[in-house]
Design a protein that fits this description.
Elements lengths: L15 E12 L2 E12 L3 E5 L6 H9 L6 E6 L2 E5 L4 E2 L7 E4 L11 H11 L4 H14 L15 H13 L5 E5 L7 H18 L2 E6 L2 H7 L2 E6 L2 E6 L1 H6 L4 H6 L3 E11 L6 E5 L2 E5 L10 E7 L4 E3 L9 E11 L3 E8 L2 E8 L9 E5 L5 E3 L8
Parallel strand pairs: 3-9, 3-10, 7-8, 8-9
Antiparallel strand pairs: 1-2, 1-4, 4-5, 5-6, 10-11, 12-13, 12-15, 13-14, 15-21, 16-20, 17-18, 17-20, 18-19
Helix pairs in contact: 2-3, 2-4, 3-4
Bound molecules: adenosine-5'-triphosphate.
């Protein structure tokens, strides 16, 4: 019997630090967000991921106190920061949190030291506390050597480190990040991603991170909330979101997938597997998920999970003979297009094993790699 691997749900049993409940945000008559609900356990990082305009920044700004919601509750620690029922909206500066923006927002005319000291001065710390706080924060981002340099004489990556140091200097309970790496070049982004994650871990600070960059979200988060058109499509660990998308939107947005629609034909008596009749032929999927015979179903199959081989693979389940229509070299990977059941399937595989256009090959997929979606994608 085929058993479908269970999602690795190691999600943290820690106490909740941030709770967002039935939050709605409007601009005039237009509903920009909501209702959305999610929570972040203490010391963990949650990422709001989604395409441009889906409402990520608006949600984050409401948590920061920079946007007044229309309804719902925002709770940090044991205090309500916003509650429509209580007509409560605590000002941003009293929420005990710090925010790092895409546009560093550091002052170019000030030195690095003064930039980092600013938040401590505003909080009326004494000279010794300010000095200790600045030194600790600069050490965290490895910028001690630049303390006396004007901020205008720093690279983009260094400026973003200063912005981070400034955000961490007064040891906030909560850190909010709004696309903090998107002004940096690809290489620096990759490095900063790791540094930021280590920083978040070492401080043990609870954080919410906004990005539209999938890799960033997968690499940096304890939990991802995927948003679309102001609503939550799915939330879970990076592993769950990537391997078990529930909707066509998530399957498509989080990594590249082939969406294949068909009709549930029969359960195999040997186990839980289900046969879906598609235009390309029978596709066997590893778990029924309660689908009834005759119902419409859409399977998501990741482009990296479809296999191509010149020899027929062992077994006869989910194996077809196809012709390579296109082969696109992408460096580490090649993207191969094949025609299957009157539609194009895309396969991503190592570029080392070359396949030529026009070549006849065998296409196969493990039934457990075909994920049944909860909604139906447009017929393909
Ligand atoms: N000040 C505003 N007035 C009116 N509508 C707004 C305002 N700010 C945002 N919106 C709208 O609210 C929706 C959500 O915007 P938001 O900036 O939160 O999206 P986002 O997911 O963060 O996108 P991006 O990644 O492009 O920043 C969008 O439709 C946007 O046009």
């Amino acid at each position: 019997m085929q058993t479908q691997a269970q999602p690795q749900d190691k999600e943290i049993q820690a106490e909740t630090e941030i709770e967002v409940r039935d939050l709605e945000i409007r601009y005039g008559a237009v509903a920009a967000v909501g209702p959305v609900s999610f929570s972040v356990p203490k010391g963990k990082q949650l990422t709001l991921l989604g395409p441009s305009g889906c409402g990520k920044s608006t949600t984050l700004r409401a948590i920061a106190g920079l946007e007044k919601p229309a309804a719902g509750v925002i709770k940090i620690g044991d205090r309500n920061m916003y509650s429509s029922a209580e007509n409560l909206n605590i000002p941003a500066e009293d929420r005990g949190l710090s925010m790092v923006f895409q546009s560093y927002a550091i002052w170019p005319h000030m030195t690095v030291y003064d930039n980092v000291a600013y938040g401590l001065k505003v909080r009326r710390k004494n000279r010794e506390e300010i000095d200790a706080g600045v030194k600790r924060a600069l050490a965290l981002v490895q910028m001690e050597a630049y303390a006396s340099r004007p901020a205008s004489q720093l690279s983009g990556g260094q400026q973003q480190r200063v912005a981070l140091a400034r955000a961490c200097a007064f040891s906030p309970e909560v850190l909010l990040f709004d696309e903090p790496l998107s002004n940096l070049d690809a290489k620096l982004r990759g490095d900063m991603r790791i540094e930021l994650r280590e920083l978040q871990h070492s401080l043990g600070v609870t954080s919410i991170y906004v990005t539209h960059d999938l890799e960033e979200a997968l690499a940096m988060s304890d939990c991802i909330v995927v948003m679309n058109k102001g609503r939550i499509e799915q939330s879970g660990t990076p592993y769950e979101i990537y391997n078990y998308p529930r909707t066509a939107f998530v399957a498509d947005f989080v990594g590249s997938s082939n969406l294949i629609s068909g009709t549930v034909r029969e359960d195999l008596s040997s186990g839980n597997d289900v046969v879906i009749e598609t235009q390309g032929g029978e596709l066997i999927h590893g778990n029924t998920h309660g689908r009834k015979r005759g119902s419409q179903a859409t399977l998501s199959v990741r482009t990296v999970h479809l296999q191509l081989s010149s020899q027929r693979p062992a077994g006869d389940r989910n194996v077809w003979q196809v012709t390579i229509a296109r082969s696109v070299f992408l460096g580490d990977l090649s993207e191969i297009h094949v025609e299957w059941g009157g539609r194009k399937l895309i396969i991503r595989r190592s570029a080392l094993d070359r396949m030529e256009e026009g070549q006849q090959v065998f296409l196969s997929v493990d039934p457990n790699r075909c994920v049944l979606l909860e909604d139906d994608a447009p017929a393909a």
